[in-house]
Specification:
heterodimer; A: about 280 residues; alpha+beta; 5-stranded antiparallel β-sheet; 4-stranded mixed β-sheet; 14 strands; about 35% strand; B: mainly beta; two-stranded antiparallel sheet; about 60% strand
Amino acid sequence: MKLFKIKTSFGLLATLLILASCQENMPEIPDLTNISSNRKVIIEEFTGAGCVNCPAGSAEIESLLAQFPNNLIAVSIHTGTFARPYTNSKYDFRTVDGDKLTKDFFGEEPFSYPSAIIDRKKLGQGTHYVGQTSWAGLIVSQIGEGASVSLELRKSFDVNTRNLSLDVDILPLDDLPSDCRLSLLLTETGIVDYQLLPSPVGWKADYNHKHVLRDIISNFDGDVISEPLTSGNTVTKKYTYQLDEDWDPAKCNVIALIHRFESDNKVVLQAEEAHVAD
Amino acid sequence: MSVKLYHFLFLILLVPGISYSQGSLSGNLQANGNFFMRDSLIGANNTPQYDRQLFGADAWLNLNYSNWGFDFGLRFDMFNNSNILNPLGSYTDQGIGRWYIHKKIQKLDITGGYIYDQIGSGIIFRAYEERPLLIDNALLGLRLAYELTPNLHVKLFSGKTKQQFDEYRSITKGGALDGFFMLGDSLNPVTLTPGVGVINRTLDDETMQTLVGTLGTYHPADRIPAKYNVFAFTGYNTLSYKNFTWYVEGAYKTNEVIFDPLAPKTNYKVESDGSVGLDTTLGKFDFRDGSIVYTTMSWAGGGFGVTGEFKRTENFSLRASPFLRTEKLNDGLLNFLPPLTRINTYRLTARYNAATQEIGELAYQFDVRYAPSRKLSFNVNYSDIKDLDNIQLYREIYTEVQFKKGRTWQILGGLQLQQYNQERFETKPNAPMVNTITPYFDFLYKIDRKKSIRIEGQYMNTQEDYGGWLFGLAEFSVAPHWTFTVSDMYNVSPGKNSPVDDSGEKLNLHYPRFDVFYTHDSNRFSLSYIKQVEGVVCSGGICRLEPAFHGVRLTVDSTF
């Protein structure tokens, strides 16, 4: 009985000590209203017309674009089972390059929709894809890292021939690895078509689809940059591209990415975006 | 796991063979192979397996060895183009899925490695494995248990929750004190098995950095604080007296950031004139504490058996990271919330299942059994689940009558009525409540001592979802080795979600299945051709939507 009392007392003491250590210094929620960085982060969202949770993901992206207009670029890639058009849809937003990017470049399809890849960064758990609730935090973290390279897009668009001429200036701020590649993506925004929304709406005919990936102007896995990317030396790459008849140039954007191209590291170092036609 | 650890574990397993010591080695194998056959009509397409991989496999080889007062365990897990992790994806990896070392030194019990354990009914902590859904929440860490007195045991543990061949970064630790007491008359005592438990999960810095970054983007109206630590406490007791048993458990968890998929979130948006406006969507993080009350009572006597259960859940999401609630619904669970619905086994009575709701649920269940004789028995079960806003999520009435005629034949039949909130459970917009009426029967006839035939049939009457179904099955067994099964699920009156042909006409599709099972001693093989409609697959209240399947499945189960 005495031994039992000693053990019980010891247990109570241990419990009190544990409870006494329950107080923690709570982390501060940062004020992001005046965030300043030369980094432009790209969020590649994987979505589909038949994905009921995706409009909330798109709203999240719009909310982040409103908060970080100078530091965030968005692309919506329609791929996978949910991207099949609705019976009455006017458009099929799926693209060959979008599917290749998903399956061949990132090597796996998203576990759930909407998913997104932030700066093509592979996370600790071995996947590129992250769910909607993680997007904001990872974007804030990437913006805070700053940039090791600067990108500038100079373009001209001929409305008659629909030819787009592009000069991409790459200015490394540090010496960059030799595996870096340049990718050029074309998006169109403000396309009105069907989208599945949560109850009570259901299929919405006049949903405004934004940042829809139309094509990848470069190779889907990026173009090799043969010139050395050394600090302070600008490298310029030239492209010409003819816009599809069905796309509205006033609503199209071209996005340039400079990214690593190792088997396990395809992280984006910097991104830049420009309107096709001003 | 380091190379050194591999060598160490292999040495442990090889040494007995070399030294001829008196250890015991046991184990088991479970292996599944799926051959995928595309059938776009039923939706068996658009996954890597149907598109190009054609074959997927998963296997678990488990070895246990005991010697020198130690127990060792090692499990090899393999996934080759498997769809078990993500029914829409392909998963390939292999390695040591589990290892452990266990030793008992007098009253002290030590386990190191991957640990499966639980506190109480698992409401605040349960590390377990559920292979059909690839849930493996083993805790990689250390567990110590000590016998304070013969009737009082204490245990403490700490570790990281397993995620396939990796671990989540957060740390979970906890403990429990369990007792056993007898009161009153020694012939008819009242027995009490009370217990208390606590767990604490501490987030890692990287997760917290992402979390505070996320919360920093929230509109001031939604802005909440964050904490590294969450604590959950529980108290429970089982009281038994004669034929009466009463289990009750109450649990509370402290404030933490959890995700509520139905909470309105204020978003910013850029208006057409360039100004910044506001928008609202559903689903956001909130800073909430949580609680659960769970109780079950049962009594048996005079041919009767009565069981009643009740559970109230509020904000009891306990995961390795708050982000997991939206990414992979069944990943990183630290606890287990017991389901309060009947576990149905027939194909159509089990078509609609209620997943446990961690944000809010008010559920109860009654089960009455009566057996006036050995030949005849009756069972009535009623379960009801609402959310905390009194919205009906699930309701089921299940009746069953069983009659046995000696050893020659037996028949079982009854009626099931269900209400299933498909909009909530499967997030299908505007999906109406699925109302089903399902009569069923199961007839077993023993031809002789070795041969038997079993026939079952069900008809599901519903206007919703895929509409009405008819299911029939015939099973012929030749003991002790062979079983042959043929079945068909027929969409007798197609509904809104049934497949259509090119002209848009609803199709009355058949979903046949053929199985051959062969059992020899402790080895069991099965070969099946399967055409299966999409549906919700649940295991213990944990559910996920499984797409349609069409193909051939081979399974091997062995114990040694």
